[in-house]
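Technical annex B. To support the medicinal chemistry partners, we prepared a structural model of the target in complex with iron/sulfur cluster, based solely on the information shown next.
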Amino acid sequence: MGKFIKDRKPQEDSWMPYTGLEDIDSLPGGDIYIPMEEWQNKREELLLRNGKLGVILENTDDVAALKDDLDRLDLIVLQFPKMADGRAFTQARLLRERYGYKGEIRAVGDVLQDQVFYMQRCGFNSFELREDQDIPSVIAAFDEMTVTYQPACDEELPIWRR
Amino acid sequence: MYQYSQADHQLLQERVSQFRDQVQRRLNGDLSEEEFKHQRLRNGLYLQLHAYMLRVAVPYGLLSSNQMRTLAHIARKYDRGYGHFSTRQNIQYNWPKLEDVPQILDDLAKVEMHAIQTSGNCIRNTTSDPLAGVARDEIEDPRPYCELIRQWSTFHPEFNFLPRKFKIAVSGATHDRAAVAVHDIGVRLVKNDAGKLGLEIYVGGGLGRTPMIGKLINPFLDPHDMLTYLEAILRVYNRLGRRDNMYKARIKITVHETGEDKFRELVEEEWSQIKDNGLRLRDEDIENIKAHFKDPEYETLSDFDADYDAAILSDPEFAHWADKNVELHKKDGYRVVYLSLKSRNQPAGDVTANQMDAIADLADKYSLGAIRSTHRQNLVLSDVKLKDLHRLWKELKSLDLATPNYNHLTDLISCPGMDYCALATARSIPIAQALTERFDSYDYLNDLGDISLNISGCINACGHHHVANIGILGVNKKGVEVYQLTLGGSAREDASIGKIIGPAFTADEIVDAVSKVLDVYLENREDETETFLTTYRRLGQAPFKERLYG
Amino acid sequence: MTLQVYSASLLKEGLVAYLCIDEDGISWSTDLNKATAVDENSIDSLKAEAERSEKENIVVGAYAVEVTQTANGLEPVENRERIRAYGPTISLPQSGSGLSGQHAA
Ligand code: SF4
């Protein structure tokens, strides 16, 4: 797989994206993530399967729809179809702060050095980087800024209350 | 004024290094122009018609004399010796080199200034009443609330890639001098009958292609809830705002398409889930910020000064200026002074480096070092003693900063238009200058009284033409610049969007057209106290139309 | 007869520049009269060079500009391009400057 960072370190990615689910028995083994819609359609059967399970959302999906299933999901993948499309920032924060999701939240799409700082603050902890990104520079970018004013997933209080 | 903490300084330093690195990556080709654009815009750097343009934030319009000197230094060292104050109270430089920008930002950081979020689809610099803290009609000082918004919105991780730009204005006086009704969010500090402070929250105002007046979505919000409530609005917008069509991406369209009531419901629902989190302001949070905006040590003075009265009697030119450009101050013996950036000799809002330095010196000498910028592209010295006015006026006059036209016809707003702006469809500055030249007589301006005239060089409406009593919009008609006339707008507490009166005029005709509009007013007003706007609202378009096209 | 030149902004300075091709190779000049003007049929060669300069991070936002040959040299057809070529039509603020009207409305 491509360039992947998790918990601020370059890692091997164990997850496989999977779509076109028809027959549960035909599913590959190992860790897979599937589109939200397929999860909703085949939820019961999918839960019987061994191996870890993740879901990938469209950035227009309401994360509230997953709120009762969060402890069954090891991975939630959120998308940045374009760098300028910031809807997934809200999705990630809601998953972490409102629904208490503890698993992996992954950014895919236009995942770039100059955004990972904001992504991590919103609760993303893994990143499928776009192919042209330089891994050491991206890792350095997590600490490019150390001052934060407002509460987010990494800080419960604004700067004036810390 | 707000004093930077260690953390504020550090943040600016980190931001400068980050941008230095981004520029380097751009220059050596690691960043494409498309991606760099998002980064440079978040630092106020545009690529305009002739050159880069750097927009420096003037947080809610407050400047110290030292900051003004740095602005002068930047104009001189990195630019062509001048800057331009915009309708967002910020200052723009028209000619910086990309390579120099990191150093400019470094120089700015030394005086607690920056260009953070002065552009891009993020929460922009908050604007406010230029008379905050000194106005006689003030209900509550808006500056502490602006500062809280500044901190909350700076590098907000969730709202840095919104569907479109996002502008917030806060006003705390009876009279709205911050145009809150035409902002994405407008906040008005008000008191209820019991004397309790609350916030009116307006959402979805804005100009541009689809001008709209903001909708009151909360008539009395507890100030402690301000930031959680703003966060709820932004969250709803980030989720629902349109991203398929740039012209429909502003929150005004979201509110319009969702419906005001439904939008309010969504905000309230979101807010109910976050209203008690760490962002809720406690009394001490507000008090701590308020401590930064304490009154300076005013002297106890009489509100009469014999020398001033004598000067008024003996020097009619001074008397004109004092009548137009000086306003009462909340403290007796002090006055608020408007420095007109609308002389005949320079484009509206432009200031040379020499003028900036001189203004800084005058602020130190006469105004406790404090300067403000206004959304009508003027500057303010906020704390001048009555007894110093005559001396100050003489110095301002020699600097060409004393045109007696505040809130009068030639105190017009003009965007840079096609002389600078890459998006323009027509020029605005030459029209502004032609008008200023034609309507030069003090007596005539005085007779016209309170009136606003704004010019934009394209439908983006940076010149706020929709909310002027007389608005002019430059458009391109088959390669020729023509100008549409809009009447009846207002940006104040009685905000309204003006209406186009009819077919556009050529550059040669537009000044005469304005003249005719003014004639109709002068001939039809009930008496001298009836303003242009009131007369227009009473008469409607018909007599104006008749005179222009009849 | 109208001709075409290629224009862009210099990446480092941001200034307006025009593509010049001669025996020494290609360069970008802020002077429109140094620009290489071609008729419509030959525009592709300019386009290719301009795009190369963009890739090499020398210029940004290259596009073709229509010009005519006049006694004073090349002159853009459109108002906007004339302003780009000659600068703002108003006098720039300098201490002591007055109104100008070189080609003001
Ligand atoms: S209104 Fe148009 S021409 Fe004027 S500054 Fe804005 S974008 Fe440029």
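Notes passed to the chemistry partners:
The first helix of chain C runs from residue 43 to 55.
The helical segments of chain C are 43-55, 79-86.
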